[in-house]
Amino acid sequence: MSVSSSAGAGEYHSKDFEWETLKQEIENDPSLQYHLLPYNSSPEAAQEAEKDSDAWKRFHSRHSSGKFFKERRYLLKEFPELVSCGGSSKLLEVGCGNGSTALPILRGNENIIVYACDCSSEILERAKEFVDAADIGSVKDRFCPFYCDFCTAGFPEWLACNSCLESFQQKQHDCFSDTEEKNKPHLKNLLRQDDCCIGGVDFITLIFTLSAVPLQRMPTAIRECYSVLKPGGLLLFRDYGLYDMTMLRFKPEQRVEFKEYMRSDGTRSYFFTIDSVRNLFVNAGFIEVELEYCCVKSVNRGKGKSMRRVWVHGKFRKPL
Description:
By secondary structure, the protein is α/β, with parallel strands linked by helices. 32% of the residues lie in helices and 23% in strands. The protein has an 8-stranded mixed sheet. Strands 7-8-9 form a 3-stranded antiparallel sheet, with no helix packed on it.
């Protein structure tokens, strides 16, 4: 069935078309062949990746009003574990933006604690204002935003307990960022528990975040997530899928890698296949729980346009 752009949370589940059918259509269209060609990256492209965080900071500065991103109410249906989890469960929302992911989670579970990070201090302030304005009970004690550019500096040390940092081999101490650690003593106290093992949080959400990370940094970014997740904990993933309509809008000169594009404002977007997501997470040590394409036909009734959206939905568990 088709859904409108203003559809409710319950309508985001349906698969309106098959990804393989879309793939065949795209690959048989001569006008879109440039998306399929091999791409040889240059040293300049790697240097441009270093500027990626700055581009996202400027992006958030332009869209700091909070109106650009709609509240993602559908997430509780896609990830019901966030509602059914036990009391005082801890979630790390990576790349929180203006709080559009954190807010429905805080609404749906009055006991969950949400730690939310982003590479833009300005957007973190907007996220705090956005969540505070929602007037959710005890939200000030359950929403903890902090600055972190996790794919370059790693997560701050207080997200993992001391005893397990020593046993986490292949993890160098300088991979952890001390950014704002001294300013967040209450966050340390909440997470420093004797019975915590190897990671400090029960859940991690990567919702349209990994696609903004330069391709060559993705494995390191995922290992960072693995290092702060408790054994048995879940990483919940949702991001752009290959042949999503936004990918097909990019022009040939906007390609910076195979399946990776750069917008005019300098921000990047990568488009995943199921296999590419599986390889990234399994190679980091995760166990695949769910992984599928979400193919939704969205109808913009105002403009009378039908849009085929493709996302990759996944759940990955850290072994016990």
